[in-house]
Structure formats: C-alpha cells, structure tokens
Amino acid sequence: MSMRAVLILLTLFLFALPKQAFAYLDPGTGSYIIQILIATLAGGTYVVFASWGKIKTFFRGLISKFSKNRKDEADK
Hints:
Layout lengths: L2 H14 L11 H23 L1 H24 L1
C-alpha cells in the first residue's frame, strides 16, 4: 500500500470521527480494568513459571556461547 493511499484513508477516517463524544463510564468500568490488570499479571506469571526451564536453558546457552567465543578470541 502506498504512502498516498495510507494518508487518504487516514484523512477519511479522521473525518468520520465525531467532534464531541458524550461518553459515560459506569462504576463497574474501574473494577473491570483492575480485573484485566490482575488477570494479565497472573497470566504472565504463569507463563514465566511454566516455561522457566526453557528460559534458563536459553540463557545458559547464550552465556556459554559468549564465554566460549571470548575464550577462543583470547587463545588467538
């Protein structure tokens, strides 16, 4: 997609938006946002702990490659 087409679509999109929005956020919205944040934290924590072995193996491999390369360069 060319840059000109993107600019035309963006301009049309901006003209389609209303100038004023009379929005209402009910009291449950705040608790819903907090619930989403807690679920994201819990899910991220689960993913890290579930794949902790793979993460350690990955970084150990990186460290061993780095130290091996440094050792090989020092031997030259």
